[in-house]
Amino acid sequence: MREIVVISGKGGTGKTSLVASFAALGRGQVLADCDVDAADLHLVLGPSVQRRTRFTGGHYAVIRSADCTGCGLCLECCRFDAVTPACPPDGPLICSIDPIACEGCGVCARVCPTGAIDFLERTCGEWFVSTTRYGPMVHARLDVGAENSGKLVTIVRQEARRLAGVEGRDLILVDGPPGIGCPVIASITGASLVLVVTEPTLSGEHDLERVLDLAAHFRLPAAVCVNKWDLNPAMRERIERRARDRDAMVAGRVRYDPAVTAAQVQGKAMVECSNQGAARDIEATWEGLWEMHG
Known about the structure:
The protein is α/β, with parallel strands linked by helices. Helices cover 37% and strands 29% of the residues. The chain has 2 domains: 2-56 and 126-293, P-loop containing nucleotide triphosphate hydrolases (Rossmann fold, 3-Layer(aba) Sandwich), CATH 3.40.50.300; 65-115, Alpha-Beta Plaits, CATH 3.30.70. The chain has 11 helices and 11 strands.
């Protein structure tokens, strides 16, 4: 089973547009959107949700006011300033806990002499198994301000692998998150190939270096695609030369094409709308990936 993960050093480089077109060209893969903090592959592929599962990650504390004696120990011990005191003129100290500020360390629950603090599982979002016109898709939605996105990414990948095994599919195509942080590490670990999408700019060159460092650290084969390469041909050449110096394969390059945006507005992949311009480049990049890692 092969697993190709498409990532980038920053958001907006064209990862999702490429993955959507690769899905149309591939036919027969399992799709996974691991950019759980800002998932958008569903905007192009229009999945029909078949199963949804609550995602929990970490805990948060809640004070049962009826059992609280107002000792103030939780207020003293909370290093995250999540405990809010209130002192009514005719009664004892009353404390409450801000669920957003609470980091779930559990200290307040341990020090409470009357056991008036509950330590509850935190619901952080949902993950989904859906059908699309190009095969099954596993994706997720992280709640606003929620954490543990790396754990959610792992769940998405595990379910995609399970589906691939059950349905006898030999390819998993992953739309990964940007950057080099925990969600990216969770997305690429153990992958067959990492495709890094970048742009012909100085910042794109810098971001590419960081992502290639990450792939090298985990000893993963890497390929590079320069999107909108014709906006700066000299920088494109420099980036591709640097990629080869780093033992990364150059899978292809995609020109700037306003038709990409037009396809997105229609909720379609670029290769569904045209066989010219950027669509032709994307198809060549897909074929290049298979020549390198077929």
